[in-house]
UniProtKB/TrEMBL annotation:
Region called Disordered, residue ranges: 44-66, 620-640
Name by which UniProt lists this protein: DUF6535 domain-containing protein
Membrane-spanning intervals of the chain: 251-272, 278-302
InterPro entries assigned to the protein according to its UniProt record, in alphabetical order: DUF6535
Biased composition (Acidic residues): 630-640
Organism: Cyclocybe aegerita (Black poplar mushroom)
Domain DUF6535 intervals: 95-273
Comp. bias (Basic and acidic residues): 44-54
Keywords per UniProt: Membrane, Transmembrane, Transmembrane helix
Length: 684
């Protein structure tokens, strides 16, 4: 049928390279195509001027269907920065709505801890009273009984009186002549157990009081707005976990249980039998308790000074988890140490220098003020870490995962919308890492773009409105199944980006992958206006040469999915035919440039034309379905026009396939060459 071109490589090897060399060559061919179509032709420039304003200037060149392409007079492409047409419900203050859920989470968590501490304190009080009643008696066993001393004195006096009567001399009475008292070993063991038990019980009371102080400071947000309080809460939450406060709370019952075991051991020893060593043992236990108490008092200040001297002098390094041991005595110690550093400047200079010294000096005055507290300390701390990013990621992971809480997803979206692009990009990047496998193709495309948006300053060729749409659509695609309004907003943002001057081949690949995910055949059909906007925006991919070789199958897959989404009565087209005709015109011109390009191999040209042929054959049957008996017939003019449109386009593709070796040799691996116009939706 067509001219046979020798030395044509196997089309299957081009589609599925089996070696690294073939994969590298395929990449080079894709880059060559991008370079080849970088400068639009004269016809392309005419298309760019007229693509939204009526028919093409040269209808004879592209077939008679060009003259039938008319969009509504009031049609206006959606652009980045314009008001949105698909509404996502928004509360009065999304930050406040998010913070309410966080406060509810913290209230439930801290309320459980407080109730447990209160219960343990009541038990510790009753238990200590019981142990005290026993120790009041047991400590007497460690000293000599006064009655025994009196007996010894009476015996000594009696002996002296007897000596006088017998004229025998007796040594003078002295204290050293009395027998030395040694408590029974059992008495020592019993007192060790009981006094240790009493000390542990009181230790549990002390630790419980400290924990309640930490929890009180954890939930203190006086004077902070919801947007400022959320990152402060996140740094406190990380500190709460990083410094093992839940583990300490869990240790309180163990202390009381150990106290009970010791008390019972002493009681058993008393029953089996009845020393200065007791004081040393009890002192050791008290010493351990006081070490813990002092450590929780001074560690926050020591950690702060360590960060000043080692961390904040190194650019880009974040502080570690903030110490959560916040109590009034710890804050008093903090003020005392800063006063010492302000008085002894020589010591300060030996420990701090550069940025750390300037930071410390700038903060000394505020620490001396009467209203300085842990809240201002947290505010200074949070500016050195990405707590707003981790806070939103934690909120999304806790409340929005599983797409069950649509309100939480909407609130996160509006919170991201109010942030700077570099901050919201970091938030979305962490959310994608938490929700999607890194092997998903969309993740590999979106994450590098989000990393670029996090850089400061941002690229001048990317407007802020475009970056916001890219970032927000990347978040919505994670939760597109939660609500149709979320999917439609994501599709609208894709249409706006496709019409943006900042669009390039990299962004095109991301947008097509996003659309491929959100245009699920099982979801509700989008509005005709949204579909028209997308199809009209697709023209620019071909008119401005923004579609790479690798994205050709993805493009046709998106169009096919959009057609499948619209479940209309038989006899009606699921896609706006006017937009489809305009799109086919630009596809034809783009294919003509591809076929005429001297920079592409025959295999690349065959691949591109074949994929476009498969795409057209997949959607043709859906655009012109036969009407059912109980449905009204489509107007003959429209039906004839659509048939003529696809017939003309098929003739163009036939000529291209002939020039590339014939439709049989080119299309055989994919569709039947005898009737390649038959729909083959399974390929996508």
């Amino acid at each position: 049928m067509g001219v046979c071109i020798p030395n044509i490589p196997s089309i299957r090897s081009v589609f599925h390279p089996t070696s690294q060399v073939e994969k590298f060559a395929s990449t080079l061919r894709a880059e060559a195509l991008v370079e080849m179509i970088a400068i639009p032709s004269q016809h392309d420039r005419e298309d760019l001027r007229t693509e939204h304003h009526g028919p093409a200037r040269n209808p004879q060149r592209h077939g008679s269907y060009d003259s039938k392409i008319h969009l509504p007079p009031d049609f206006k492409p959606w652009l980045t920065g314009d008001p949105y047409h698909h509404y996502i419900p928004k509360k009065e203050d999304p930050w406040q709505e998010c913070f309410k859920l966080v406060l509810k989470f913290d209230d439930e968590m801290c309320r459980g801890w407080r109730e447990e501490i209160d219960t343990l304190l009541v038990f510790a009080g009753l238990f200590s009273a019981a142990v005290t009643a026993f120790t009041v008696e047991s400590y007497r066993w460690l000293q000599e009984d006064a009655g025994d001393i009196q007996v010894q004195l009476l015996q000594r006096i009696s002996s002296q009186v007897g000596s006088l009567q017998s004229n025998q001399s007796q040594p003078a009475l002295s204290d050293t002549s009395l027998s030395t008292f040694l408590p029974e070993p059992s008495s020592v063991r019993i007192n060790v157990c009981w006094f240790t038990s009493l000390t542990l019980s009181l230790t549990a009371v002390l630790v419980g009081i400290l924990c309640k102080q930490w929890l009180r400071e954890y939930q203190r947000y006086e004077g902070l707005s919801a947007q400022d309080a959320l990152p402060v809460r996140q740094l406190r939450y990380e500190g709460l976990l990083g410094w093992h406060v839940p583990k300490i709370l869990s240790a309180l019952p163990l202390l009381l249980q150990a106290a009970l075991v010791l008390f019972l051991s002493g009681l058993l020893d008393l029953l089996w039998t009845m020393n200065t060593q007791v004081a040393s043992v009890v002192t050791a236990v008290v010493g351990i308790t006081m070490v813990f108490f002092m450590a929780t008092t001074i560690i926050p200040c020591i950690q702060h000074l360590a960060h000043l001297s080692r961390v904040w002098t190194v650019g880009g390094r974040e502080p570690g988890p903030q110490c959560a041991f916040k109590s009034p005595q710890a804050w008093a110690f903090h003020l005392l140490i800063t006063e010492v550093f302000s008085l002894y400047s020589s010591i300060k200079r030996s420990l701090f220098y550069g940025t750390a010294a300037n930071y410390l000096q700038a903060q000394l005055d505020s620490w001396h003020s009467d209203d300085a507290n842990w809240l201002t300390y947290d505010q200074r701390w949070r500016i050195h870490g990405r707590f707003i990013e981790r806070g939103i990621n934690w909120f999304d992971k806790t409340f929005a995962r599983g797409n069950s809480n649509v309100d939480a997803i909407n609130n996160v979206y509006h919170c991201l919308e109010s942030l700077e692009p570099h901050v919201s990009a970091a938030c979305v990047s962490q959310i994608i890492d938490e929700n999607w496998d890194p092997l998903v193709p969309l993740v590999g495309l979106v994450q590098p773009a989000l990393e670029n948006f996090q850089m400061q300053p941002m690229a001048e060729d990317v407007p802020e409105a475009f970056s916001n749409d890219m970032i927000l659509s990347s978040y919505l695609v994670v939760h597109h199944k939660a609500d149709n309004r979320i999917a439609f907003r994501c599709m609208e943002q894709c249409a706006r980006m496709l019409n943006s001057p900042a669009l390039n081949t990299e962004f095109t690949a991301i947008i097509l992958e996003v659309l491929k995910v959100v245009t699920s055949p099982t979801s509700t059909s989008p509005s005709d206006l949204l579909v028209t906007q997308l199809l009209t925006a697709f023209k620019r991919l071909f008119a401005s040469n923004l579609l790479s070789i690798d994205e050709v199958p993805t493009f046709w897959s998106v169009v096919l999915r959009m057609a499948k989404q619209n479940e209309l009565p038989a006899g009606r087209s699921p896609l706006p035919l006017t937009s489809v005709r305009a799109l086919l015109k630009h596809v034809e011109r783009w294919l003509a440039r591809v076929v005429d390009s001297p920079h592409l191999t025959i295999a690349d040209k065959q691949y591109i034309v074949t994929r476009c042929s498969i795409g057209i054959s997949s959607i043709r049957g859906m655009l012109n379905p036969p009407p059912e008996d109980n449905q009204p017939d489509v107007g003959e003019d429209d039906s004839d026009l659509d048939e003529q449109t696809f017939s003309l386009f098929q003739e163009v593709l036939d000529r291209m396939l002939t020039s590339l070796g014939g439709s049989y040799s080119t299309l055989k691996p994919w569709v039947g060459s005898e009737n390649w116009g038959r729909a083959t939706p399974g390929l996508y």
